[in-house]
Amino acid sequence: MSAKYYTHFIAQSDDAIEYNEYRGVVELLGQNGSVEGDRDIARMLARSFDLEETDIQVLQWHQLH
Asked: Which band of pLDDT confidence, cut at 50, 70 and 90, is reported for residue 60?
């Protein structure tokens, strides 16, 4: 099972000078609507980008139906 989310977020590791801004649809495999807030989605995005959860600043997100 998977869930699709529209996300808009900034990714920046501690030692980076610049940041990367992303927006678009992400599909989280193994999720069935159990994302409960910004920190949950940030944790999952961080794993995908091989970053720490604190390196992700979520600006906007919502689940697509």
From this structure: very high
Q: For 1-51, what is each residue's pLDDT tens digit? A: 678 899 999 998 777 678 889 999 988 776 555 677 889 889 888 988 888
Q: What angle do CA 61, 21, 56 make, to 5 degrees?
A: 65
Can you read off the two tokens belonging to residue 11?
Answer: 């990714």
Burial 33-42 (b: 16+ CB within 10 A, else e): eebeeeebbb
Q: Domain 2-63 has what CATH class?
A: alpha beta
